[in-house]
From TrEMBL:
<comment type="similarity">
    <text>Belongs to the transpeptidase family.</text>
</comment>
<dbReference type="InterPro" id="IPR012338">
    <property type="entry name" value="Beta-lactam/transpept-like"/>
</dbReference>
<keyword id="KW-0812">Transmembrane</keyword>
<dbReference type="InterPro" id="IPR005311">
    <property type="entry name" value="PBP_dimer"/>
</dbReference>
<dbReference type="Pfam" id="PF00905">
    <property type="entry name" value="Transpeptidase"/>
</dbReference>
<dbReference type="InterPro" id="IPR050515">
    <property type="entry name" value="Beta-lactam/transpept"/>
</dbReference>
<dbReference type="GO" id="GO:0071555">
    <property type="term" value="P:cell wall organization"/>
</dbReference>
<protein>
    <submittedName>
        <fullName>Penicillin-binding protein 2</fullName>
    </submittedName>
</protein>
<keyword id="KW-1133">Transmembrane helix</keyword>
<dbReference type="Pfam" id="PF03717">
    <property type="entry name" value="PBP_dimer"/>
</dbReference>
<feature type="domain" description="Penicillin-binding protein dimerisation">
    <location>
        <begin position="56"/>
        <end position="218"/>
    </location>
</feature>
<keyword id="KW-0472">Membrane</keyword>
<dbReference type="GO" id="GO:0005886">
    <property type="term" value="C:plasma membrane"/>
</dbReference>
<feature type="domain" description="Penicillin-binding protein transpeptidase">
    <location>
        <begin position="259"/>
        <end position="561"/>
    </location>
</feature>
<dbReference type="InterPro" id="IPR036138">
    <property type="entry name" value="PBP_dimer_sf"/>
</dbReference>
<dbReference type="GO" id="GO:0008658">
    <property type="term" value="F:penicillin binding"/>
</dbReference>
<dbReference type="InterPro" id="IPR001460">
    <property type="entry name" value="PCN-bd_Tpept"/>
</dbReference>
Length: 567
């Protein structure tokens, strides 16, 4: 009997302990976890409020935490119908000043306080400052997108939740609340980091307090807060340098209609700039206009898309042959030009008797077909993989890999010759090519690319960091040094002289991948680094529908490199 009583006491004790723990957890959840949310809802019930920001959302920034969207503050007409004694009269007066239909304003007023997105003329601004209608204010609103937002393909764009399926998916994958019609990320970093970027409530707002019957509480008037806390929203900090990104995009807009440019920090996998053309303006107000008349590939990021690299792939063969001691720089070969087989040379008359060093500078196809035969498909595949040409991953940027990339196809029958000059089944992305040239510039170490440094709060403190992946040894330091000299020859005396960077010098490799179209254009490549003696920047330019790597891509490389070095 005594034992049974003890058991009952113990069961009662543990039951009470569990109940107390559950109550404590519930109170903790209400007060600390959901406290701000409940406070916001209570405040919204007791007030009429308008958010003084275009979107309740964190920023996507460059490496210095400067927003890439170019956000700015602008005075906007903010209307509080609850503060109007005669709403019809006041809205008609406002409509006359700003040149809008009063019926439209009345329709907006039915939903509560609002602001108008129109830009005011000096005359309208003066009228509203001098004799504003009752309940109308001029207040600064944060506009997310400036006139020229940068890195549109990287940041992606926003769109409203338009389907029940999308709404349910967001609710299932997030602890945050969503409503149909909310603006959410549709592509790029806006999409990948939706859960971190989405805010819970405004950081900037204007509010009028109401009583239980919805009447304005006398004496309190309008309250404006421009520094409210929203711990739920975070900023995505990229590795992009805004100044370099701006240079890249301005040069591309002047010289390229279709293609890609990547800038990587030498000795690191950090991407400092990454742009694709044709591009689009991610601002919701201008997105539709920027897409009008464009082809379907405007959404395609060519930086992470697959292309044949042409002669840029000869870097792999040269590095492998030197690393394995299978070729000497002064070894002689014979080029028969158009009569060479199985792959002819781009120079119809041929290069005749030529050393390996000269063949690399002149991008002689028959020589590299012979080098490919010496190496064999398996060795080429191994070195291409070590140099990153099978790795499509970018740290912090979880894009899907394209399964068409298959280095093993180099070993299939009849593919070796074309593969040795970067044609046939060889497919790479501009990001991968940049990482490959960075390996040469970095003494033989391959650094996996990184685009996002982490996620930070509104004070700039990292909540989550995305570390730079550890480098791996791809080729020996000796081989990297020899390759640097060979790449320097390309810009000084070879086919890439138009990529020569004044004062600082440059090194790199051209590529011209045939497109098999009627006009004979190519995917024109130049990938290299500057300064030549102490590499700081690795730059890849790929121009779709160009004439050749040396004539089309090299000059773009030169202009971008010189402008970057000047800053």
């Amino acid at each position: 009997m005594l034992e049974l009583r003890k058991k009952r006491i113990m069961l009662s004790f543990w039951a009470m302990t569990m109940a107390f723990a559950l109550i404590t957890w519930h109170l903790y959840n209400i007060q600390l976890v959901e406290g701000n949310s409940y406070a916001l809802r209570a405040s919204q019930i007791r007030s009429q409020e308008v958010a003084l920001e275009e979107f309740m959302r964190g920023e996507i920034t460059d490496r210095n935490q400067v927003p890439l969207s170019g956000g700015y503050y602008a005075n906007r007409v903010v209307v509080f119908p609850k503060l109007m004694q005669d709403q019809q009269k006041e809205l008609e007066q406002l409509a006359q000043v700003i040149g809008q239909n009063s019926a439209d304003l009345n329709k907006k007023a039915r939903d509560g306080a609002f602001y108008l997105t129109l830009n005011l003329t000096s005359k309208q601004l003066q009228a509203l400052q001098t004799t504003p209608p009752e309940g109308v204010f001029l207040l600064p609103v944060y506009i997310r997108y400036g006139d020229k937002p940068l890195a549109g393909h990287i940041t992606g764009y926003l769109g409203k939740i338009s389907s029940q399926e999308q709404f349910v998916l967001l609710q299932q994958n997030s602890a945050k609340n969503y409503n149909l019609g909310d603006w959410v990320g549709q592509s790029g970093l806006e999409y990948f980091y939706e859960q971190e970027l989405k805010g819970t409530y405004p950081q900037r707002w204007a509010r009028v307090a109401l009583d239980a019957r919805g009447r304005v509480i006398n004496g309190e008037g309008l309250t404006v807060n421009t520094s409210a806390a929203d711990p739920a929203r975070l900023n995505v900090v990229t590795t992009i340098d805004r100044n370099i990104q701006q240079i890249v995009e301005s040069v591309m807009d002047a010289h390229m209609q279709n293609g890609a440019v990547i800038v990587m920090k030498a000795g690191s996998g950090d991407i400092l700039a990454m742009a694709s053309r044709p591009g689009y303006d991610p601002s919701p107000a201008r997105l539709g206009h920027s897409l009008a008349g464009r082809q379907g590939d405007v959404y395609v990021d060519h930086c992470t898309s697959l292309f044949q690299p042409g002669s840029v792939f000869k870097v792999v063969l040269a590095a492998a042959a030197i690393d394995l001691g299978m070729v000497d720089l002064d070894e002689h070969f014979t080029c028969l030009g158009a009569n060479a087989g199985p792959v002819r040379c781009w120079l119809d008359g041929g290069h005749g008797r030529i050393t390996f060093q000269q063949a690399f500078a002149e991008s002689c196809n028959p020589v590299f077909v012979e080098i490919g035969e010496r190496l064999g498909a398996d060795t080429i595949i191994d070195y291409a993989g070590a140099l990153g040409l099978s790795n499509q991953a970018i740290a912090g940027y979880p894009i899907k890999g394209d399964k068409r990339q298959n280095l093993a196809a180099i070993g299939e029958r009849f593919n070796l010759a074309n593969s040795s000059v970067g044609q046939g089944p060889v497919l790479v992305t501009p990001v991968q090519v940049t990482a490959m040239l960075n390996t040469i510039a970095s003494g033989g170490l391959y650094y996996p690319p990184r685009l996002v440094a982490g996620v930070a709060d509104d004070q700039g403190r990292f909540v989550r960091e995305i570390k730079q992946p550890e480098p791996t040894s791809a080729i020996s330091a000796y081989t990297a040094g020899v390759m640097q000299d060979l790449l320097r020859e390309v810009t000084e005396v070879g086919v890439g002289t138009r990529a020569q960077v004044a004062q600082w010098g440059s090194a790199g490799k051209t590529g011209s991948a045939q497109l098999n179209n009627a006009d004979g254009t190519v995917d024109a490549w130049f990938s290299g680094f500057t300064p030549v003696n102490n590499p700081q920047y690795v730059i890849t330019v790929m121009v779709h529908d160009g004439s050749s790597g040396g004539a089309t891509a090299a000059p773009v490389f030169k202009e971008i490199a010189e402008k970057i070095m000047q800053i």
